[in-house]
Design brief:
Elements (H helix, E strand, L loop, with lengths): L2 H13 L4 H11 L10 H10 L4 H13 L26 H14 L1 H13 L16 H5 L6 E6 L5 E6 L1 H15 L4 H8 L11 H16 L5 H15 L3 H8 L4 H8 L3 H15 L1
Antiparallel strand pairs: 1-2
């Protein structure tokens, strides 16, 4: 990393107050820039259009122009208009879910587990890199391994919420670490349960996106996005009979506080409801 990039990261963090996830996304596109041409209006227009007016690219560029003090001489090209088609959420079938899971686990335990985390927890791709060993409620789950394992997620604006990981998946994780650390030993189990180690190591959102996008293309012959897995899981929960108000809380939508106040529903009650219904459905 060169000094100029380090300075820009410091500006984004200290001056603009951006979170690490946003900075990581900005720097991905920042590295694609020809730094010698950032004062060229035509180049800026072409660069933004090359990435289809991506809002992350626009955000990076706006901040970069401000940092470089070029915002008064360089104009941003127009945003997308409302007449453009919205991105369509396509259905992902149960058969496709099973096929992708098997395919990715065949590739590696890590890729298969990323897929299971996204789908079962209805997680955003930005949430996957934040999962730590102590994000799981291991000791609670070990009291009844037939129940889903609670996983604490740090979502948008650093809000915590709880999602449920299927007992079979929790068992895979536990056995994976048991082979390394002998978790029958209470001291080892305590260290495992309280460990802040990232379960997937240091990975980027882009890596998570690639696991799902490239995996679906090679396995199914079509592209599936991480957000479509969230949608598929929400649809599955609805078919199981989970109330819509609980699904909204499970997904960590931005109107969480409003939903809870209006419906008088707490996160604890929602998780209990979902857990009970999943168990009943087997």
């Amino acid at each position: 990393m060169d000094q100029e990039q380090e300075n820009f990261i410091a500006y984004l963090s200290l001056t603009k107050g951006l979170m690490d996830r946003s900075i990581e996304q900005y720097i991905y596109y920042y590295k694609k820039l020809d730094q010698a041409r950032i004062s060229d209006q035509n180049y800026i227009n072409q660069f933004i259009q090359k990435w289809h007016n991506n809002p992350i690219v626009r955000g990076m560029m706006l901040n970069l122009l401000e940092y470089k003090k070029l915002n008064k001489i360089i104009d941003m090209p127009p945003k997308k208009t409302g007449s453009e088609k919205k991105r369509i959420i396509r259905e992902v079938t149960d058969q496709e879910i099973h096929a992708m899971r098997d395919y990715l686990y065949d590739k590696s335990f890590k890729k298969g587990l990323i897929f299971d985390m996204i789908y079962q927890g209805a997680l955003r791709r930005s949430e996957i890199p934040t999962i730590r060993l102590n994000s799981f409620q291991w000791k609670q789950w070990l009291n009844n391994t037939d129940q889903p394992c609670h996983l604490i997620i740090l979502g948008k604006r650093d809000k915590e919420r709880t999602v449920l990981i299927n007992p079979e998946t929790a068992q895979k994780i536990f056995l994976h670490y048991d082979e390394k650390y002998d978790l029958s030993n209470n001291d080892n189990l305590d260290a495992f349960s309280n460990s802040p180690s990232l379960i997937f190591g240091k990975i980027s959102e882009r890596y998570v996106w690639d696991v799902v996008h490239k995996g679906s293309r090679r396995c199914l012959g079509r592209d599936i996005r991480t957000h479509e897995l969230r949608h598929a899981r929400a649809t599955e929960l609805e078919k199981m009979g989970v109330p819509i108000k609980d699904i909204k809380i499970y997904l960590g939508h931005s109107n969480l506080a409003t939903t809870e106040i209006y419906l008088h529903t707490s996160e604890k009650e929602s998780i209990a409801n979902i857990s009970e219904i999943i168990n009943q459905k087997g």
